Amino acid sequence: MRFFRHLFTRSARHLFPEDSLHRIADAIAAGESRHRGEILFAVESELPAAMVLRGVQARARAEAAFARLRAWDTEANNGVLIYLLLADHRIEIVADRGLAGRVSPEQWRGVCLLVEERMRAGEPEQAVVRGIEAVSDLLATHFPQVDGNPDRDELPNLPLILD
User: Fold this and answer.
1) Is 87 helix (H, G, I), strand (E, B) or coil?
2) Which listed residue, of 17, 79, 108, 134, carries a Cα 20 to 30 Å from 119's Cα?
3) In order of start, what are the domains of the chain with their CATH numbers?
4) Whole-structure pTM over 0.85, yes or no?
5) Cα gap 122→105, rounded to integer Å
6) Residue 26: pLDDT above 90?
């Protein structure tokens, strides 16, 4: 069944057209104005057939994307990847080591549930924006902006479609 979902999933570009991607980028920029963390959003429609047959799961794919996209390469080790694998209906959050011990797995799962709720309602853009806002709330708690010390943008704000 999973194999067929990966063969016949609609393209991420269908759910996230160019104007939607720009609104998501704006949400990332707005969130990052509140904290010194870095948020990256990536979406993948499906996995290649060979990966599905080998049993590669969304979490492993998200962790590989986190490394490949260099989300770990931030000064404060506070990069966060929100990864969406459409074929598996999975949202994964991968956070850098600077957030370990600060944000619990339950808090990350709560963010995923917010995204899942809006995705089920057929609102993919709003789902991602709500997830970004929730991640920004967590980052603002642990890495607030410091007045007079502007934070540089270390990761791209424009979402990445990994097709």
Assistant:
1) coil
2) 79
3) 2-144+154-161 (3.10.310.50)
4) yes
5) 26
6) yes
